[in-house]
Amino acid sequence: MQVWTVSNQKGGVGKTTTVITLAGLLVKRGYRVLAVDTDPQASLGYYLGVDPDELPGSLYDLFRGHDELDLPMVESVIVPTGTPQLDLLPASTALATLDRTLGTKDGMGLILKRILSMVAHRYDAVLIDCPPVLGVLMINALAACDRIVVPVQTEFLALKGLDRMVRTLEMVGRSKGTRYPFTIVPTMFDKRTRASLQALTALTQKYPRDLWHSVIPVDTRFRDASQAHLPPSHFDAGARGVQAYSQLLDALLDQQGVAHV
Ligand SMILES: Nc1ncnc2c1ncn2[C@@H]1O[C@H](COP(=O)(O)OP(=O)(O)O)[C@@H](O)[C@H]1O
Ligand SMILES: [Mg+2]
Q1: Which of 7, 17, 220, 221 to mutate for ligand 1's pocket (most ligand atoms within 8 Å of CB)?
Q2: What's the whole-model pTM score?
Q3: What CATH fold (topology level) applies to the domain 2-255?
Q4: What pLDDT was estimated at residue 75?
Q5: CA angle, 121 as apex, 26 and 232 as ends, to 5°?
Q6: What is the mean pLDDT of the chain?
């Protein structure tokens, strides 16, 4: 089972879009996929047409009950989505309170990793969506994954946010005695604008090792797909943006040494 976390401390850079598009593409390639929403805003759930207020439980209940976690408890919270082979471990607004209640206790950073190990036999891939804040949820998402995907909007201000995110990854990694492998993905690239081109040049110079070699173009089909509550891969498989994510998926599978279909 591959576990990838999509994270950036800046909002609106394409995190949720990256999760849902990669998830849809993996499903189309025959993978059984679990999407995990750790963002209290629950955008991923809303995107997939799942209203967190109408669900029996959420990731919050698993964190609250972390002392007695077991498979039935985890399974009771996971819901199917309108897309076959794609399940959701949903968020709820209560997740925002976890930093206050759990944040400082020992071992709190490994709860999500434990949750995922319990359902590892049911899925081939897990994609974790993150809130744009460094807190107990992001720490859990980092500790649970094999690779971090960092979408960055190709514009000047977003580059500043990226520097902060990379420093966070280094800092958290050092405290755990590890280095988190990450891939920076330029998103919403518009080749007609100077801002996009300049941002890409700056990224290439600053992060030659961790930058994906291509870009995700700006594509209005992403917004249309979200309004239809469908993964972009299932809404318009031929869209330019979906094709670009398919190339990204190949690169990520290669990096993890997974043969792709
Ligand atoms: N490549 C893209 N081209 C055009 N619009 C995009 C693209 N990626 C994301 N969007 C749109 O940008 C907005 C923010 O994206 P989202 O994935 O929700 O960001 P985040 O999760 O980082 O806050 C959404 O309305 C989404 O549809
Ligand atoms: Mg989001």
Answers
A1: 17
A2: 0.95
A3: Rossmann fold (3.40.50)
A4: 96
A5: 20
A6: 93
